[in-house]
């Protein structure tokens, strides 16, 4: 994947990731996608999760693209699950804290959803772009992988590069003033 400079990225037309380019099949109303983008920008995470080799029979690390949103209002979580699928989990809190909920969507559905909301994202558009570059292959996924099939090394390296890109983009804390060149910048 070629690196894009900041100037090249800024020069892209606003319609570069438009839904009319064959990615969007009309399943979701545009206002719902725009609303979801706002929620993702404010309370969501767009990332690639990496599972390291834990057992000898595991032939390579696993990578899972994910979009998640955390909130204390169950009505929002119900709407997300009904509208876009995914799953909702609950975290009980002690004392005066309200229980929190986490909605998440993974794999193919996360990639397609990232592509659909990308035009509406203001803060996490670059992360969604990196996620959309993942192109998750079902053949190498947990469910469709024959026991003796290994993910090719170039594919593992590509996935690791995308994982590291998301990790840099989602980093917290103060920067030390140095400009970090990323794949998508």
Kindly report the CATH topology: Endonuclease I-creI
Poorly predicted parts: 13-24
Instruction: Report the major sheet.
Output: 4 strands, antiparallel
Within CATH, the superfamily carries the name: Homing endonucleases
Rough outline: globular
Would you identify the CATH architecture? Roll
Please report the first level of CATH classification, the CATH class.
Alpha Beta
Explain briefly what this protein structure is.
By secondary structure, this protein is α+β, with helices and mostly antiparallel strands.
Task: Describe the fold and architecture.
By secondary structure, this protein is α+β, with helices and mostly antiparallel strands. It has one domain: Homing endonucleases (Endonuclease I-creI), CATH 3.10.28. Helices cover 36% and strands 16% of the residues. Strands 1-2-4-3 form a 4-stranded antiparallel beta sheet. It is globular. The chain starts with 5 loop residues before the first helix and ends in a 16-residue tail after the last helix.
Any chance you could write out the topology, listing elements then pairs?
Elements: H1 6-11, H2 30-43, E1 44-51, E2 62-71, H3 74-84, E3 87-91, E4 100-106, H4 107-117, H5 125-132, H6 153-169
Antiparallel strand pairs: 1-2, 2-4, 3-4
Helix pairs in contact: 4-5, 5-6
Q: How would you describe this structure in keywords?
A:
alpha+beta; Endonuclease I-creI; 185 residues; 6 helices
């Amino acid at each position: 994947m070629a690196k894009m400079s900041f100037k090249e990225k800024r020069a892209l037309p606003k319609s570069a990731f438009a839904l009319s380019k064959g990615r969007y099949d009309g399943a979701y109303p545009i206002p719902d996608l725009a609303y979801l983008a706002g929620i993702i920008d404010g309370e969501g995470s767009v990332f690639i999760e990496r599972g390291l080799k834990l057992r000898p029979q595991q032939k390579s690390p696993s990578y899972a693209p994910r979009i998640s949103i955390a909130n204390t209002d169950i009505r929002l979580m119900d709407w997300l699950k009904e509208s876009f699928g995914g799953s909702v989990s609950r975290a009980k809190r002690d004392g005066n804290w309200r229980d929190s909920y986490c909605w998440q969507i993974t794999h193919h559905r996360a990639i397609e959803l990232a592509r659909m909301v990308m035009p509406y994202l203001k803060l996490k558009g670059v992360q969604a772009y990196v996620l959309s570059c993942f192109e998750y292959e079902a053949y190498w996924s947990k469910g469709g992988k024959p026991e003796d099939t290994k993910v090719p090394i170039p594919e593992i390296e590509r996935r690791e590069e995308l994982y590291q890109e998301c990790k840099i983009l989602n980093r917290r804390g103060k920067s030390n003033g140095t400009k970090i060149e990323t794949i998508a910048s």
